[in-house]
Amino acid sequence: MKNYLYILFFFISVLSFSQSVKIENENTETKLAFKGGEWLKFRISYSNFLNAGYSTIEVKDTKNKSLEAFHITGKGKSSGFMSLFFSVKDDYQTFMYKESLKPYRFIRKIDEGGYTKDQEILFDYSTNEATVKNYKHNTETKHPISSDIQDILSSLYFLRNQNLNNLEIGQEIELQMFFDQEINNFKLHFLGKEVIKTKFGKIKTLAFRPMVQAGRVFKEQESVTIWITDDKNKIPLRIKASLAVGSLRADLDAFKGLAHPFNIIFDN
């Protein structure tokens, strides 16, 4: 279960790939899929029955050098039986401009069973360079980036502001993400539309399957399935994965401050 929150954020963020065909960026204030004050809570379970913990993602309004921006915080903590033998306390933060939805600062502070990281990444688009500050080891390094780079948390919100209406089943989507001092290239496939049952009722969703590396963590390349709401919010609703040992599932457990109605299908 080590790094389970990282896996959760990876699952969520891989949805933010820029398509190999052009997608329209709806980055005007009136069309944003989210707003300051939004709060999402996910329940994470291991092997479908063991409560592993919870994670939350919260959006706040902020400014950077007089430019309007978002401060997004993702936190996770193990709970119940799982915390007795593997304690997790994670804090991910991203700061991104409202107009471009590009991150300018990323923070990662984690403690997972004694495995710790304390890092800050500063993105400079004038030089296309990322500065990684490692406070645990007191080091600072610089790395080249593209102008379209995202971090692991900002990518979720970049995706949510894309027009996914014209996706075709089997269409491949790609993203460049800067994480762990390097650029990672990910791919996923659109599986189609699906209605799933949740604690809130039946919800229309878009289903995706990211191509992940089989081996140490995942059982096989196509081990992960992700569902996001098929509405203007585009929030992650459910994530399932078959791991090398057991399985992992994350479900939306609570929410508030959505920018648009949360559509529930009511049976006649």
Describe the structure using short key phrases.
268 residues, 9% helix, mainly beta, single chain, 15-stranded antiparallel beta sheet, YmcC-like fold
Task: Provide a quick synopsis of the model.
This protein is mainly beta and 268 residues long.
Description:
With 268 residues, the protein is mainly beta. It has a single domain (4-256), classed as YmcC-like fold. The protein has helices at residues 4-13, 80-85, 154-160, and strands spanning 18-19, 39-46, 50-64, 67-78, 88-97, 103-112, 115-124, 129-134, 139-144, 172-179, 182-198, 201-211, 224-229, 236-242, 247-256. A 15-stranded antiparallel β-sheet has the order 1-10-11-12-13-14-15-2-3-4-5-6-7-8-9. Strand 13 and strand 14 form a beta hairpin. The chain is globular and about 55 Å long. The chain starts with a helix and ends in a 12-residue tail after the last strand.
Topology overview:
Elements: H1 4-13, E1 18-19, E2 39-46, E3 50-64, E4 67-78, H2 80-85, E5 88-97, E6 103-112, E7 115-124, E8 129-134, E9 139-144, H3 154-160, E10 172-179, E11 182-198, E12 201-211, E13 224-229, E14 236-242, E15 247-256
Mean pLDDT: 81
Number of separate domains: 1
- Based on the coordinates given, report the CATH architecture: Beta Barrel
Percent of residues in beta strands? Answer: over 45%
Q: Flag low-confidence runs.
A: 1-7, 9-30, 212-222
CATH topology: YmcC-like fold
Lateral arrangement of strands in the main beta sheet: 1-10-11-12-13-14-15-2-3-4-5-6-7-8-9
Largest sheet: 15 strands, antiparallel
Helical residue percent band = under 10%
Individual helix count? 3
What CATH first level would be assigned?
Answer: Mainly Beta
Described by the principal axes of the CA atoms, the overall outline is: globular
Number of strands: 15
Distance between the termini: 42 Å
Could you give the order of the helices and strands? HEEEEHEEEEEHEEEEEE
Report Rg: 18 Å
Given helix and strand content, the structural type is mainly beta
